[in-house]
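note to self: dont lose this again. the chain is below, predicted strucutre after it. 343 aa total, dont forget to put it in the shared folder this time
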Amino acid sequence: MTKKLLRVLVLVHETLVPPEDTAGYSPQQIDEWRTEYDVATSLRAIGHEVKVLGMGDNLAELRSTIMDWKPDIAFNLLEEFQGIVTYDQYVVAFLELMRLPYTGCNPRGMMISRDKVLSKQILAYHRIPTARYALLPRKRRYRQPGKLKFPLFVKSATEDASLGISQASIIHDGPKLRERVEFIHEQTNSDALVEEYIEGRELYIGVLGNERLTTLPVWELSFGTLPDVMSIATRKVKWDRKYQARHGIGTGPALDLQPGLPLRLAAIARRIYRALSLSGYARIDLRLKPDGSLYVLEANANPNLAQIEDFATSALAAGMGYDTVLQRIMQYGQHYDAAWRET
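---
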């Protein structure tokens, strides 16, 4: 791994530009920009020259910063652009047009993994099991899917970070299904994805690399004292610290896995990563049913990189400190075989 110090342009949403230090901020305020703060301060501590650019709704400032400051690499922490979650891929495409290396996933992999239906179709082609599903588009006449078995799980077909997901997302009858589908259409302004609910343990596995891949230890989301009927990763489960503490919710190493299962999980994670054209780093979410069968929930390109979140903590369990993780992610960005390198 190269130890060359770089000029790093950290791309963040305009409302998430972190302060110089956390003094005077509440834990809730810090949570808003924790990832941005952790990445920027850690890169500076390593010795890199860092500029944080808060991006709003146009690319003009990004272009001028690249032309004037001449960064060696962009560290991409954007999760949306112009308020649209699927538009972050276009910023990465712009970076390719500017011939600037960047961290994380390439535009094609971002587009495919963000489109949950397309992802499922590709995984099905590769015979990687996912829950049976139906897509119910917006602005179309509602028709209840007839081949799916209750209970069903309803979510946005494109949004991430558990937007629109709550305990009401698990559906047991037809009238509630229509009500929830209409809710997703209205609240997320996206199509609704209806899946057969998969009961079981929720497992995460991080993947690093472009061609040669490294998998991290298997991590598990523990739902603590929540009843089994509530074992889904809602926004409160993922982001509400008080709710997590009250119910003992948290993530950590997946214990008591059957012999050989960690290797099987690592192998399927690599297959998914390659099938969806991912690069840089990603987190693969799966469900392990009581009978030992595995189902893919989704693949998350550019997952949360805060020091306290799953990707970094699982890397630490593998002996990879936070600085090393960031360095490796930048190394993969510098060496990603983008098309412009061949011209």
